Amino acid sequence: QVQLVESGGGLVQAGGSLRLSCAASGSIFGINDMGWYRQAPGKQRELVASITRGDTTNYADSVKGRFTISRDNAKNTVYLQMNSLKPEDTAVYFCNVYLTFRGEHWGQGTQVTVSS
User: Fold this and answer.
1) What does the buried/exposed string (b/e) look like for 37-55 if buried means 16 or more CB atoms within 10 Å of the residue's CB?
2) 59 Cβ partners below 8 Å, 6+ apart?
3) pLDDT digits (tens, 9 = 90+) for 27-48
């Protein structure tokens, strides 16, 4: 069984920064696309950023210029650097990975709270 462990969430003031990490472990043959999603109470889960195996990135318009997604294939880890945080960024953030042979997997979620 594959496990995705997220870390780095917390409480930060508006304008501050956080760095989220998501490390995959277990039976991993390879990781294709990876991404970060977020979900606020009463709202649907939305894609924040994604990165392909070839390091092509995509960002939601709301976070462009502020967030950066990256990956370390040797560590089976995806990161999300979040700068200039806004209260509207407050949400539970989930990592998502698509594994070779094993399909899609989700992290457990980490809370990010941005105070004004």
Assistant:
1) bbeeeeeeeeebbbbeeee
2) 48, 49, 67, 69
3) 899 999 999 999 999 999 999 9
